Amino acid sequence: MTEAVIRPARPDDAAALGLLGRQTFIDTFVTGFGIPYPAPDLAEFLDASFSPEATATKLAEPDAVWWVAEVESGLLAFANAGPNTLPHPDARPGHAELRRLYVSGDAQGLGLGTRLLALSLEWMEANTNGPLWIGVWSGNLKAQRLYAAHGFHKAGEYRYPVGTWLDDEFILRRG
Predict the structure, then answer these.
(1) In Å, how far are 67, 132, 156 from 9, measured between CA atoms?
(2) φ, ψ for residue 145, nearest 5 deg
(3) What CA–CA distance (Å, rounded) separates 7 from 40?
(4) How far apart are CA 78 and CA 104, in angstroms?
């Protein structure tokens, strides 16, 4: 595989980002972790989160940023950061949140997640007036270890809706 280029996402990436997000979510949480989402809940979540229209809307969000890792054949990974949305009593919209860091199965182990995380953290630190925040599924120990290695610690818990299904999530904080 050729070396991936990391660049800011563009509006014309919406369809490819949506497909990558949808497939990575399925591969990670349904196939990988075996979360038994009811089919209607999963379909509703995937459409609301990763349709081309939903992705285009998210790409246009003011004060948010997206990066993609790309090779000639397409996108391999992406990161999205922006104003905090996590439900923690100390969190404010002026704080920064890493909202998504997705790496396709084919690109696992290439260091793209670490590169995208470093870029995201640099942006977050430059664009916040407080701590940095990340929401992570409670069962995703690999991601939790990665974030802990970058100074994040558990600051709370919340329920993340996938349709009407509610995932148990941890709120991580740095600073």
Answers:
(1) 5, 22, 31
(2) -65, -40
(3) 35
(4) 9
Phi-psi region of 83 (alpha: psi -120 to 50; beta: other; left: phi over 0): beta
Q: What percent of the chain has pLDDT over 90?
A: 95
Tokens 């995937």 — which residue?
46
148-157 burial, b at 16+ Cβ within 10 Å, e below that, comes to eebebeebbe
Exposure string of 20-59, with b = 16+ CB inside 10 Å and e = fewer, is bbbbbbebbbeeeeeeebeeeebebbbeebbbeebbbebb
Give 99-153 pLDDT, tens digit per residue: 999 999 999 999 999 999 999 999 999 999 899 999 999 999 999 999 999 999 9
Rounded (10°) angle between helices 39-50 and 52-59: 40
Say which DSSP state 4 is in: P
Residue type, 122: E
